[in-house]
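@channel sequence for tomorrow's demo:
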Amino acid sequence: MSISASFTVRRPNLTVSLDLEAGAGEVVGIIGPNGAGKTTALKALAGLLPITTGHIIVADEVLADDSLHLPPQERRVGVVFQDHLLFPHLTALENTAFAPRARGVSRPVARERARRWLQEVGAGDLLQSRPAQLSGGQAQRVALARALAGDPVLVLLDEPTASLDPGSAMALRTLLREHLTRSQAVSILVTHTALDALVVADRLLVLEDGHVVQAGRPASVAAQPRTQHVAALVGMNLLRGHASGGAVHLANGSTVICSSAVDGPAFAAFAPSTVSVYAERPTGSPRNVWPGVVEAITPHGDAVRIQMRGPAPLLADITPGALAGLDLRRGTHVWASVKATEVAVYAA
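structure tokens (generated this afternoon):
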């Protein structure tokens, strides 16, 4: 099974264009800011929106082109929604059996298939439970079982962990990774969550203003983000300017010194953990030193993340002890530095 999709959807406020090729068992993540067109693309693949031009071909079947639009019920597509959307009056078993029943499978066979999938996703003890009796994580497992029980060739997942607590979300990511990659279906995952994108997806597409602006393996996208949204998603500092002679010159007149040379439009990226924060301008070896003002202080794992505004808007991760020692709070004036060897530079 595979998907070949190249289409445009024109809506009143946005035109979305997507080119996508993927094979059986592959999970493609689509990320981007609100309003980028992710949900529009997902709805077009599901058949909930007609495409304007192009084609969608899944498992050698044309689902849509310039003259054809198969409705959702005629597409072998399974959908896992953010809010589960289970039928409240049906048990987990009947909810799951609904998908194969909708495709013409007899009730006994549909129920057996539903039992098997509920067992597969760790919800075998919930057969007779109704949605109101389920936790968020349990309901999302049932929703996943329902999507897979219909024997789909394409699985669409819309923010599947967004409504879950951290423990349930991590358990569901592991479950998704295991079952989606083992499946013969192609899976498309829309998410705002970095861990979903990095843990579940094999490949990422970054949408902005309706167009793909970056594509690649999750590790590559995270290591070299090309948009502020992706940089924020993976927790990187990203500065754009014009590179020459081992430096990136920013539009505001600041300069970022790098350890490697690139000429022309370029990005400079570095992790918050490489940024040091001082109460006074530091002396010594750091070649990149900027003044800043603390805008926000938030916990970040075992560290504290400092967001600063200044000539270079920065994120820095420091220890709680350093936070106390510097007596930082919103509005505090500080100095930040990063070594040139910590800065990755690449063409924009």
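heads up for whoever presents: The CA atoms of residues 161 and 170 lie 8 Å apart.
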